Amino acid sequence: MSLNRRNFLASSAALAGASMLPRVAMAADTIKLGSILDTSGIFDAYGKPMDMAMRLAVGEINAAGGLLGKQVEVVAYDTQSDMALYSQYGQQLARQDRVDVVHGGILSASREAIRQTMRKTKTPYFYNVLYEGGVCDRNIFINGVTPAQQVEALVPHAMGKSGKKVYILAADYNYGQITARWIQKFVADNGGETVGVDFFPLDVSDFGSTIAKIQSAGPDLVIAPLVGGAHLSFFRQWAAAGMKDRIPLASTTLGVGNEHKVLTAEEGNGIMVAYNYSQELDTPANTAFKDRWAAAYGDSGAINELAVSNYQGVMTWAEAVRQAGSMDRDALIASMESGLSIDGPAGKITVDPKTHHAVLDVHIMEMENQGMKVIETLAQRQPIDTQAVCDLSAKPNDNTQYEINI
Amino acid sequence: MDLTVVILVEMLYAVASLILISAGLAVVFGMMKVINLAHGEFMMMGGYATITAVNLGVNIFLAMLIIAPIVVGLIGLITERLVIRHLYGRLVDTMLATWGLSLFFIGLATMIFGNTTTGISTPIPGFSIGNYQINGYNFFIIVVAGLLLIGMLTILKSTRAGLIARGAMQRSDMAAALGYSPDRIYMATFFCGSALSGLAGAVLAPLVGLVPTSGGAYIAKSFITVIAGGPSLIAGLFTSAGFFGIVNQIFTFAISPVIGEVALLVAAVILLRLLPQGITAKFFKGKL
Lengths: 406, 288
Hints:
The complex is a heterodimer. By secondary structure, chain A is of the alpha/beta class. Chain A contains 13 helices and 16 strands. In chain B, helix 3 packs antiparallel against helix 8 and helix 10 packs across helix 11. Chain B has one domain. In chain B, strand 1 and strand 2 form a beta hairpin. At the A-B interface, strand 8, helix 7 and helix 8 of A face helix 1, strand 2, helix 10 and helix 11 of B.
């Protein structure tokens, strides 16, 4: 076929017209998924991969024919690592865009900034991030690991490899404060002793004196729920002081934003962590997921814990919509509460009906050559921390974030 | 006993790092009276210059001590030619302009390096003092800060260039009458100030996780140190860094790092209430 300009124009116009048709026809009738994430600013190491994961999940849902015969449309806002923007964009998603569901929020502060708006406007809200636990609200679903799932697994393992005296270094906001209390509890439960706890604002980057203080306390193990780029300095300075081979380290946050790829192998090797996901997880589901990610984005290096949580969150929501057969909020909640489960890249995830948290696999891992080697897998852990305080089937109107008292 | 030594080393290190992060600003703000709010970003660029050079296979000490200061100095030079030179003597305007510059540099670094944490590991192994392990790199920073002070003192006091620079800063019309071009002198001094900031950023880079917004963490401390130092450049830098560094570490060891930072700020407020012109307006008067 010879191609001259006239019939090229004619055919491409027809093509363009044809491709617009279904879109126009469906524009009035799509399911709107609201996404609210920090895809720029200091938390973008977390937010960008989460955004990629959400778009990957929605793309897969649409490629498989959408939900209830409709395509899913993404309405995404970048909150620029600014907590004030969460309340603004949260309002916009719920009241102006009138989305059918909201996925997003990274820091606990950002979740609390939009949770009440979602509750008031009856917009189902999915928070797909590991966090300090305790949120009890019928309108929210959370699929990240909580301290009881993570710390309960990590502490005995780490203490078993080191000893009974533990020193805790935590980020100074609600996540760090609450997680530090959980660590203290599980250290005590395992017959250990917490010899020191220090909290650091998110911008502290000099840990020289802390490293000296830790040594005078003489612990067998240091557990560090530190958050963000400045706190990464601790792991670097710890290695620079030659402490790495003297006192073992464990963390509940390191690696969530793929920090282990920033630290060199010498700095990172041997640090113990426990998460729902690792890129090194050797399962067919994970291999297939990494291939799909690489096909969409060229390289699977960006995948991290939070990205997989977000992917699994969107997929869980999609499954619930399919089972509910309607976009009605109460039908959605009812199907979520029916013991729904999906198989994600990190294994099976089941929604716990009482707490709206997740029952999931937890893997104990050690950093090795900038990767996370899976040491042990604990299958289907219950969110027992939140279960202890929250029962939405008995108290459906509960709207509290419970904190643990020790 | 061992702990005492460790605490002493940490104190010296705190003083040394304050001297390092404030030296560039002492020249640009203390001498030239340019309120450089982009000082932190000059440090950040020094860090990135080092990391980039090291990743390209350059020896880390060469990258920190030579390449980073030159790169940042040249950036400072361009900035001076394009922006700062139009603003000499206009204190408040320099503040606004350099604040804009700081946003610009953060944006630029984000575009080039991405908004993710990068870093390199320290080149010096840790070693032990009795039962304690200590970061060997601390000593490197102490040595660099010491040499820096001596170097600045020597140049300003005993070389012709230093004399000319000091003269031109005091009375640029007299310097001009004697046949020196104040424009050139200001340009060269700004180059030196920026290079010092770049050096500080470079030397501190292996200790931190670097992001384009890292500069913000240094700016307040460096201004406090320079302002509390007062009119004498070197003596002011040394005394105020010494005072704040020691206060900071005493409270850090006694209570917690957060209280250490608070104590530093409280000390600064009290100091400026008692000595509004800075330490060297009362003590070491007339010294450099």
